[in-house]
Give the backbone structure.
Amino acid sequence: MYFFDPHIHMASRTTDELAALSRAGCVGLGEPAFWMGYDRSGLDSFRDYFRQLTEWEPKRAAAYGIRHYCWIGMNSKEAENVAFAREVIALLPEFLDRPGVLGVGEIGLNKNTPNEVATLEALLDLALGRDEQILFHTPHLEDKYKGTRMILDLLRADRRVDRSRIVIDHCEEHTIRLALDEGYWAGITLYPTTKATPERAADMVEIYGPERILVNSSADWGPSDPLAVPAFISVMRRRGHAESLIRRIVYDSPLRLFNQSHNFQFTPPE
Amino acid sequence: MSHPLDASQTLDREFLAIRSKLLDVAAALDRIDRAKGSVVGDPRLDKIRQSLGLLSSATADRTEAVEMIFSLPYQADWRKV
């Protein structure tokens, strides 16, 4: 089955894994800008990273028949220094119009601090002012519920928000209903120990239905599985779900979301 | 949308996995007990105990409830706070 991984950090993964993704049926992926595991020392580090996402990674993926798309933004892990964050935010428009850029992301909250909120509001203003799609990172573990509610509060307060063009990512059982009930896309991340498993993702699909649900690996530099989406497909099949339902979640829905971006072009496989 | 398998089929499939995960939890708690020092009063243990109690109850939505045990509270007036 062809599939997209709508959230994966290939900059932290190997070419062998791109080959494995291709063999498993991956035809496209979305790579949000994120925290690379260490704080960057200056603006040029961000500029080089955004060049990597928009220039080098698409070429590397294309060699394996995979279309690489990305989201440009500043992750909340580096948002605490508000003055520096504003310099990075001023850099983003230079990259947002490039081919294959899906919008602003991943942005959001980490420890739910006032400085993170200030940076997020500036990022949100930039994105909405440019009519960009937005991918939201929701916090980890004990901070997730509170941070997700805070993000939804910020969005509810802005009349420019088109909820059909916003993803609330890393949803789990205690946050997915919040995102879906308000009309957002809900991303479920299959990530060992700290997020969801393929089995729990299948449970959430059974409880809430497939509409506006995305499943992704968020595979990055930590212990994670770039083949987590195929693992989800396997779990759904073993439970007896229809191929059409599975395809809707792993192929049709990400395609529908990505297709709402200004810079998205895709030729479906024959 | 329902689960395509019935309850008996689901239990057949999940029984050994549940047993294994319960043993992992039991072994980890034993490991903490055997280790030097004390964690009496550590709030994380209280959350684990609350979660184990919840698993043996007949309530639905156990997963969501366990997630909430491990979550910080949200205050609607967080901007003022």
